[in-house]
Description:
- By secondary structure, the chain is mainly alpha-helical.
- It has one domain (2-230).
- It contains 8 helices and 2 strands.
- The protein has helices at 3-6, 21-42, 50-69, 74-93, 107-129, 131-136, 146-182, 188-230; strands at 10-14, 17-20.
- Strand 1 and strand 2 form a beta hairpin.
- The longest helix is centred in the C-terminal third of the chain and has 43 residues, at 188-230.
Amino acid sequence: MEQEQIFAHALFQVGPVVIRDTVVTTWVVMLGLWLGAWLLGRRLRAEPGLVQTAAEGGVVAIEDAVRQVLPHQMDRVLPFVMTLWIFLVVANLVGLVPGLHSPTRDPSATAALAVAVFLSVHWFGIRIQGLRAYLAHYLAPTPILLPFHIIGEITRTLALAVRLFGNMMSLELVALLLVWVAGLLVPIPILMLHVVEALVQAYIFGMLALIYIASAIQTRATAPAQASDSG
């Protein structure tokens, strides 16, 4: 089993920039999602077929999940969370296609997703609560806790990246080992577990992102109210 079958490897180089298979696969996934959304949007019917029914069911399920966590800010947060969830599902499952590897097995890809979540948390917090009210949280209940708040923001971002990378890398390793040892037919039931685990990991990552965003919004929203009630 060659190392490049497991880890991301360079495909070609454009000047000083090295293009790895993770980048190519990620762009293929994004292009496929865009093309699928475009085709589905052009073929919407009042009486939906199987594909439209499945797509509408997925959208409703994501809307319900976001509504349960952020009922008053769902319209603002939904586009980001839904895009993140759909991308993760496809990116995690693309490794089942022969010749392709899931981009989320690469720590650089999971780190980029974690950074996107990190930035989105602060973006929504500032947009909804205002800069001063948002930053005031880091000084509550005492400014002494400011370093601990900062460390918490960094560590949970690292945890997001490492968790997704570790689980998806282990799935790729198990699949490759089974194919190498047992051939192509025996691992089929195990590959079904691969599908389940890939969906679970996408759900966990997206739900954690939603919870982080909700905490950035709701803690700043409730703080002024609690202060006024105590006064």
